[in-house]
Every structure is written in C-alpha cells, then in structure tokens.
Amino acid sequence: MPSNLAATYKSSAQRARVVTEGWAERNLFCPACSAERLLPSPRNTRAVDFECGGCRQTFQLKGKSSSFANKVIDGAYNALMAAVSSDTVPNLFLLHYDRAAWTVANLTLVPYFAFPPSAIERRRPLSPNARRAGWVGCFIVLSRIPADARIAVVRGGQPVEPQSVREQYQRLLPLRQIAAPERGWTLDVLNLARSLEVPEFTNAEMYARSDELKARHPENRHVTDKIRQQMQILRDAGFLKHVGRGRWCIA
After folding, report:
1. Helices and strands (H and E) in the chain: how many
2. pTM for this entry
3. For 18-35, what is each residue's pLDDT tens digit?
4. How high is the pLDDT of residue 181?
5. Distance (Å, whole) CA 240 – CA 190
6. What domains sit in the chain, N to C, each tagged with a CATH number?
7. Where do the DSSP E strands lie in 99-204?
C-alpha cells in the first residue's frame, strides 16, 4: 500500500484513510464491466467513494486494520434502509489491511443488489446527552448476506483474478432482475438453504426453519408458501437445483 501518503498526517484515522483510498484508486477495478480502474468520487460525497467511468456503478470502501467481524458499522439506519429498498445503495468493498506492514490482507465485494433488508440491523438511538441525540445508526450483518454474494477480490494477501471476480458478479445478476421488495425474501431463502450445509435438502427441512423467516418478515402469514415460491425463483435463477420430489441442492 502507498504508505508514503500518510507522511504528512498525524491522526491515525487520517493516515489510514489516505493510504487505503490511495491503494484503492490504483488497484480497484469494476466487477460489473471491463473498466480496469475506478474513479474517486468528489470529496464529501455521502456513502460513495468511487464510481466506474464505464457503467457508472458506485462503490463504497470500508477499511479496517483487523479482520471484519460479523457486524459492520454503517451510517443512519433509515437512510440505508431507504437506499436498499430503492436500489441506490452502492456496491461495498470491505478492505482488511495490516497497518504495521501497510499490506492488504483481504478484500471482499458485496454487490449493491445483494443486501436483504434483514441484513440491516438497527442500533440504539444516541443518548439525550449526545451531540446528535436520538440519531439511529445501523450495522450490516454479514452472515445474513448469502455467501454467494460475498465475493473475494483479495484472499490471504493474494489477489483473485479479475476475470474470476467478474464471473462471480455476473452469476449473481439474475438477482438484480427481481424487484427490490421481493428480493429480500429471495436472498433470505438462499441464505437459509446455504446454512443447512448439506449436499441435498428437502422442503420439510426448509419449513422447519421457517421461524427464522417469520421473525424477519412478520407481515407475512404464509411463510411456508413463500419459501416454496422463492425456491422456485432461485431454481429459475440458477442458484438451486430441483433433484426430485420435494428435494433440492445448491446449484
């Protein structure tokens, strides 16, 4: 990473920001098209750090000097939920780096259309004594985003071939064709199927976990019907395979 960029800064946060953004400007490529570089956004552009000059997709970069836990701190809860529901949330890069050596350890990409509302967790409002009293932030819960949609760009210090990253991104594009309000269900059911961690599974095994989906979608009173519908959508999109009567596997 270009550690020389930090020389004129004393704040550790500022040093980390300029180095990570400097590395990203030189190394990030667009996963959605053939553009080899991303363009930095104008200063103070909220929630967007880079943009593709080709396909105009937007990207946010979150850097951390330790590995990312299951929950990633984000901004205002209502703003992020509105962005998810309107498909205006940027693609997200999660950059884990070694601050002592200024090297990249891992980089993960989450496409903008792969955030189910269930992955956005509301935080407690700030206390009445806080400067922004009552403000409500949020976490992004990574385990609620299907593993299919957490694409490795750098793994264990080694870059993944851009062609492989783009192929994984392209494989996810059928999800983008599903309307955002319905897509949350699709992603949740895919994540539930993934969590079974078995070569094959049945309708009954999915229905047995329906309470998890009821908790995330309390407005729906026909959860088993919805699970069955979403498994058919996932089959048509190429994520599940129907291998027999009431039996499925991950494609």
Report:
1. 8, 13
2. 0.92
3. 999 999 999 999 999 999
4. 87
5. 8
6. 3-170 (3.40.210.30), 180-250 (1.10.10.10)
7. 103-110, 120-122, 137-141, 151-155, 158-159, 201-202
